[in-house]
Design a protein that fits this description.
Radius of gyration: 28 Å
Largest sheet: none
Number of strands: 0
Number of helices: 12
Strand content: under 5%
Shape: globular
Helix content: 55-70%
Number of domains: 1
Amino acid sequence: MKKHSKKAADVEVVEQPAATSETIPNAEQNIDLSDGATLPSGEVAEPKRKRVWEVDFVRGLMILFVVWDHFMWDINCVGTHKYETGLFQWLYDLSVNYYAGTLRKVTHDVFVTMFVLTSGVSCSFSRSNGRRAIKMCAFAILFSAITYAVSAMFNTRLTIYFNVIHVIALSVLIYTAVEWIWSKLTADWQKNIFGVLYFAVTMTALVVGHCAKADGVNWLDLIFGESAWRTEILKKFRLGGDYLSFLPDFGWFLVGAFLGKVIYRKKETVFPSVDARYVCPITFCGRYSIWIYFGSQILMYGFVYLLHVLYPVL
């Protein structure tokens, strides 16, 4: 009887129905990954995070202004009032009036500041500001290398040693260290002291930078005194395709990083009633601003140079 029971048990085990496709979810089945949902393995699914559209929107507007500003510079630099067609002669006159006019003097610093500030806000949404800093530094170095090569090839002064991309890259790198230090603080008094230092550094960067701009002097000279070799190096930095001082914009970056932590604690939009689809062309530009920054300048300058210098049809 015992032997018979064992065989019966064996038969019973063998005859258990195998799991079918109806009991095992596959890629074609819909799995709810909302908050609190669980995967078939029993793990809690991480909810898909939506992008905060207003940050991309502001950055998109700023990068479009940068593209316009660079296009005016390309027309002014490449053409040098020798265009033969009415359209590009009109563009050249427009670029001259634009760079000498009040509009650019008023809007340029505002747009650049907002671009840097929103980059600081974006630190609140980055999964790893360290990796972001490495990528930005690599882009900045590559950009300087490319402009240097172009300058040597065409015998022009197009080398960009330090501009808004370099400012943001260095700012993200420093902020990564700030985040790391903050993560090591445990006591409230330590965090309070660190907060005071953060505020002091931010205000110093803003005040010193703006005072230097107002007086037309180098902010390094305001801090460390005048130095011939330092002045010579900075002159070289400025004699290129573009230049942006690290101060006061680093201060605005810190302001943006602080606002990002305060306003976007939940990493959600503060304008939930707005349908982001209606502003998607601009938010797209903001999402891929770094690629638009590089690509637009290469395409625009190359286009004008090709049609005006190599094949003078403009």
